[in-house]
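This section describes the prediction task in plain terms. A model, or a person checking by hand, is given the sequence of a single protein chain and must write out its three-dimensional structure as a string of tokens. No templates, partner chains or ligands are provided. The sample shown here is typical of the held-out split.
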Amino acid sequence: MQMLNHPPITLRYFDARGRAQFLRYYLLTRGLRFTDERVPLSADFAAWRAMREDRSLAGPFQKLPVLLLGDQLVAETLPIAAFLHERLGDEASLSGEDNLRHVMLTSSVYQDVMLPLGILLWSDIAFAGADLRALATRTLERLQQHLVAVERTLLEWQWVERARDRPVMLADCALWEELDVALRVFGAHLTLDATPGLAQSYRGFPARAACEQLLRERPCPITARPGEADAIAKIQALLS
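The expected answer:
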């Protein structure tokens, strides 16, 4: 597919970062025209409830995000990422080994960073009576352990060096987004000092300026959780 000659692209998700922000970064930094369709948030989720039963909007599983490329609808975050990786030519530009590494890194960031952070932010609503201090402490500990493993793996793969010779890809966007989210959720309780390679990758991410500009132009919460700012403040206070 020619980047400047593709069918219309629409990415539909809530007006939050959540599971779609790294997809937004990717489309933006690769210069792809797309409609960033954001479902408004409210305490009663009225806008979402009004469209949820319409599978042409909410997809086959009636959840977001969904991607429309022309008339083709793709649902679920990781399948959307895989679809874009293939259809927009990135898969063909990488070796089989590097494609496998791209898939593994994307999956690890999604499963081991994005989802635990989302669960933590929603925990006192979703799990009444949960010990938030214990959950926050354990989530932070597991995250720090995982980041050490990620850094070691990326060094072994020579990920940063190889990235210099190719465009920004989805796994790169996912890694930067979730490092940024983790730093915002845990504040001073999380640093990247123990993972200097990741710290350098985060600070020197080629698309960082574009990502931060999008965050300034379209500010939104990390998740759709009501009262998220207060929840983050509470998590940081409990860790003190």
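For orientation: Residues 19 and 77 are 6 Å apart (CA to CA).
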